[in-house]
Each structure stands twice: as structure tokens, then as C-alpha cells.
Fold each of these.
Amino acid sequence: MKEQIFLDYAATTPVDEDVFEAARPYYTQVFYNPSSSHFLGQQAFAAVERARENCALAINCSPDEIYFTSGGTESINWALGGVDGDIAVSAIEHDAALGKAELLEKSGVSVSYIKPDSDGIITSEALNSAVTDATRLVCVMAVNNIVGSIQPIKQLAAAAHKHGALFFTDAVQAINSLDIDVKEWNVDMLALSGHKFYAPKGVGLLYVKRGVKLKPLFVGGNQEKALRAGTLNVPAIVAMGEAIKKAKALREQYVAHAKAVSTEFISNLNCGSVIGSRDKTDDIISVVFRGKNGYISGGKLATALSLSGVCCSVGSACSAGSATPPNALVAMGVEHADCSVRFSFGKNTTAEQAKRAAEIVNSVVLRF
Ligand code: PLP
């Protein structure tokens, strides 16, 4: 098989070896149910609570404000569906938020959409023009998953609060690059997903500020204060607790590495234009390509690149296969949004891979 260069870390990341090793005993030895009151169950419980402390420390909240979930999608659905009243959602959100907003709208909730500017940034002015004093919850992601735009979360949360609304942020793509501090940002809820920061898939969390009343997501047992019933995924939670400590400790290194490899990639590209410019992370870029016969369909180009050894994506992995361009790009007013491809870099991307990938892109584009 041809060597494959993986440039799709925004879709998912590998589990770090040491994170995997930390989780291993909780599959085979300390496999007990953390809700069991006996001695062995309490060992699993203690591991879950240590992970909760790690997560709380990483985002500067109390452990009792952390609720474990199955990932970003679940946390987002819970946050948006957990409060009654009108909501305002940015137009560049992940499909989990946009899809939930659409469902809520069908059930009679009034939903307004906050427009981004051409760089994919939501300004306080845009928020103010979409939010009314009847809005109960405002949802804006911290880092966009298609173009990497960084949102001014602290200002947006303050603007939402002025309208008397709660503020929720999907920080799934922010955790590696930004110093997340829920107190400094003053957000009411925040979502994270393990598999975007070198922990396993199928685990995540929702931070809920003390005092915020959220409806239960699942009923059943008393897990997560009876708000999210269901036996906890102990090994995955342990892994996430280890991975989040590392994400925080290695943040500066991560940011410098992402800058180096994305610069290497972009400087070796002799075609395409990168979307968005100001205030963005370096680990995610979307590029529109033009060939000799006009703009190149993102889907067709990504397929051709995959056959040539570069694995990237068109929009988010969750909406792969859909014929429509990413919502975020359409909302930003990007021309030829359906002719874009997303490249995303991770801890394991090397400068050589970035250079080689750019050379492959250059040669594949020539075929169109
Ligand atoms: N939010 C953002 C910004 C994402 O990039 C993703 C994953 O692509 C999600 C939410 C969904 O997270 P999960 O895959 O854990 O359901």
C-alpha cells in the first residue's frame, strides 16, 4: 500500500500510548462498575473521580461541574435541549448544533442564527443583532472545525449575558490550541470530546456552571447526579483525564508545532487559496482549488488525493458524503465553497509529511 499521509486530525486523533496504558487496567483488572458501593466498585469510582478532577483542573472549574458524556455530539445536544426558551446559534456551528437547533425549531422553539464575518468570526455586534431579551441560550463554538477561526468567547459570553441569556460554547476543536478557562471566559456550559485530544472516541464532557438548571439527558440510574443516567465508560474517562492534563501541559509546544507544519505545507503549495485569515488556529485550514478547467469539486479532489496518498476531508467527517458544501463556508459567503478541501495537522505530523503532502496536492491539482 502506498504511504498515506494523514492530514485529517480535526476528524480524529490517535490515542497517545501513555494515555492508552493508563486506561488499560480499567478494561481488564479494575473493570468494576463505579456505581457499585462495594470495595472493588469504589476503586473504579475513585478513578472516575480522579479523571473528573483532571478535567476540572484543565478548564478551571470544580469537579462537580463536569458531566461525562459519550462525546461532543451528545454534549452539544444536551446543552441545547437542556434549557427551555428561545435560542440563538451561530451559523458556523458543527452539524450537531445546527441539527439540534433545526429539531428544536420544528418543535416550536424560536431559533435565530448569528452570522459570521468573511473570516469565519462571530462578532459581538452580530450576536447583538440576532439575540433578543427573549433568548434563553446562545451557542457559539470556540474554534471552528472547518477554517479554524477563533471566536472571541469572553466578549460573546458577556454580550449574551447582557441580554439575560446563558452562553454555551462547543470547545471541541479548541482544547489543543487555546487555554480554556471557563471562569475567565465566563461561559455557562462548554463541550469537549476526547478523541480530538488524543483520548479515545466515544467519551466527552459537558461543563455546566453551578446553578445552571439543565434538564436530564437520560433517565435511569443516578449517574452524573441523575442527569445523565447510564454506566460510565471508566477506561475512556480515565484516558480522557490523562489526555486533558497533557493537552494543557503541552499547549505551547502544540501551537508552535502546528504553526511550523502548516507553514511548511502552505509554503510548498503552489496552488489554491486558504480561507479566512485573522484569528485562526494553525492546525486547521480549508483551501479552495482551481484547475485549468475551473474550480475543482472538493469531493473529487479529496478522492483523488486519497488515491495519491494524502488523506484530508471535505468539511467535517460527520457530514462526509453529503453533496452540500460545509455550512460554515456558505455562511461566511465563501465563493466556490463546494470546491474546498480541509487539511488538519496534529502532534504527529512531521515537516517532511507536510512538504510531501503539498507536493502531492500540487501534482494532483494539475490533473484537473
Ligand atoms: N463539535 C466540533 C467542533 C467537532 O469538530 C466535532 C467533531 O467533528 C464535534 C462537535 C462532534 O464531536 P464527537 O465526534 O465527539 O461527537
Note: The radius of gyration is 21 Å.
Amino acid sequence: MKSDETLVLGLETSCDETAVALLDGAGGARTSRVSSQEEAHRRFGGVVPEIAARAHLENLPLLLDVALADAGASLADVTAVAATAGPGLVGALLVGLSEGKGLALGLSVPFVPVNHIEGHALSPFLDGAGGPAFPVPETFAALVVSGGHTHVFRFEAERIERLARTRDDAAGEAFDKVAKMAGLGYPGGPAVDRLARRGRAARPFPVPHFKDGSPDFSFSGLKTAARERLLELGRVPAPGFPGGPSLREEDAPQGLCDLMADVEEAIVAQLLHRLSRIHEAELFEVLTVSGGVAANTLVRERIPAWGRSRGVDVRLAPRGLTGDNAMMIAFAGLRRLLTGRLGEGLGAVARSRWPLETLR
Ligand code: KG4
Ligand code: ZN
């Protein structure tokens, strides 16, 4: 198979985005489509698994047709199929995984089950504008920060090692929970980002430490501390359900904008503190930063600055690829195809948990 003839179809349905992408053999996007279900889940203040699965069933075939039309391709041009097999919501995963297996079987092309976190971790090597992907070094560190994950991994040719994980909430969850208490709706990370731009961080929250000296993350204390500060501001923290916004962003008082700036600072300060600790022990040269929280303004400013001060080449996921997408799934699949690591292939099952460090 000549690499310029390769066309990998990527499918992503692990949570609340239905996504389809077509990637060429150089890792360039022929198309990448994402259909968000945010509207369907918003009034529940979080993702409802049954609604997610049903929406994927409805959206996936339509999105596939649109993606093929975008690329001026037909199914017969697809040379391999990659679909997310986990971690995620099992009912949601099953939709993309079954579709992917069925297509691969029908087309007699290889099927690659992809780990969603591996997809995120590799996404910073993609060119967000459709150009070929950047070369992936044999060894690099990856910070994956999303609504469900806050992890640091070390990627090597033959293995993936976990260097840190969150012991409670994920960083994105911390953004979302604080936003929800402040009445900013769900998912609240982008709203906190916008309010923080209007605020001034002046009262830092402490960076938590573990007694055992572990570089693991912890964000649950921040939620409680932020709650206290909301009460100080005379705001009654909104209950978690229903999650519709009760405060218009333009009406947010200065004190609340300042608090959101403090919250954002606290999250980024902890990320940097842990990265420094890990870098002192591990000395990596390249760090990828990916996942929904990699869209955050302060994250995109401070982590590259940290890298420059330490001689670490920080690669941020392109803006359009921080959230869930199928390009990263197709790309992880392409890399596995090129190295003959297809995992369980058609035998793969949907996994709610699938630790990345168990992959080869
Ligand atoms: O990767 P993603 O789309 O889905 C998961 O796999 O979780 O990440 C979504 C998370 C949410 O928690 C959302 O609030 C957060 O990413 N997020 C942000 C920003 N944009 C998205 N957090 C802070 N600042 C942002 N600009
Ligand atoms: Zn994700």
C-alpha cells in the first residue's frame, strides 16, 4: 500500500460528541466533522449516557455521509478503519465501535481499536489546517487534561508509562463544577476562561500536596475553597441540577471575574508544579498538551512559557482539536497501522476503563 493512497476513516463516539474524520497516509485531514450533543445534555447539567448513545445512533450515519462528500470520496476508497474502543460510556462507545467493525469487515480492510486518551496525547502532532502531521518523536511526555482525565504519560517506542494521574476530580471537572456553582451552566470551562480574562487574580488558592510526595493531581479541594469564596461574595452556590445557566456572563460582577481568575490560576499553577516535579525526575524533551482544557487561554500561555524556561519543546493541540474529535482517533489508528500494532483488532470490546499504560 503506497502511503499516498492510504485513507483512514476515524470514528469517535466515546462521550457526547459524534465525530468522523478521513485522514491521508501523511496524517493530513481530508475532512473532520464533529457533531456536539451539548444542547441535548445541557438541561441535565451533565452527560446522560442513554441520551448520548441514542444521539450517536442517529448522528453517525449522517455524519459519515457528510464526511465522505467533503472529501469527495466513497467508502470504497477507505483503506482502514479506526474507532474509539474506550475509555468512555460503554453504550456510546458501542455505536462507533460496531459501525467501525462492520465497515471494516464489509470493505475487507484492517480495523484498529483506538484508546481515546492515546488519541488526545497524539493530537498535538496533527496540523490543525489539514497539512501533513509532524513527526512523532520516539520518546515524549504527554499531559492530557479534559473533563474526564488529568494524566501525564511517558511515551516510548514499545511502552507507555503513567507518571501522574488525578486522585479525585479532573482539571476540566474542576472548571465545570466551579462554573456550575457560579451559575454559569454546563460545560463551564469556556465561561470561566472568558470571565477570568475580565478579572484579576489576587488571592491565590494553595497548591495541594500529597504526604507521600507523589506528583499526582488533586482538584476536589479547589471546588470547596471556591464555594467558600462564592459565599463571601454573597452568591448562593447554585445546586448541581438542573444545570442551566442562571447568570448571564455579561452580568457577572467584578468580584466573580476575579474569583474565576484565581480558580484558573490555581488549576494552571498545579499543572505547572506537577510538570516541574516530573521533569526533574524524568527529563523529557518534548511535552504534548491535549484535551478540552488545552483550549484554556492561561494553559496555552503558561505551559509553553514553562517549557521555554526548561528547554522542553511544548506542543499544544491545535485549537480546533483540543476537544473530542475523530482526527486524533484516525491518526492514532494510522500510527498503529504503520507499526503493525492493531491490538485486538475486530475482537476489541468497548471498555469504560482502559488504562493507557496497559497498551503496547
Ligand atoms: O476533551 P473534552 O472535550 O471531553 C472530555 O473527554 O472530557 O474536554 C471537555 C472539558 C470540559 O470540562 C470543559 O469545561 C473543558 O474541557 N474546557 C475548558 C475550556 N474549553 C473546554 N476548560 C477551561 N478553559 C477552556 N477554554
Ligand atoms: Zn476526550
Note: The pocket of zinc ion (ligand 2) is lined by residues 116, 120, 146, 291, 324 (CB under 6 Å).
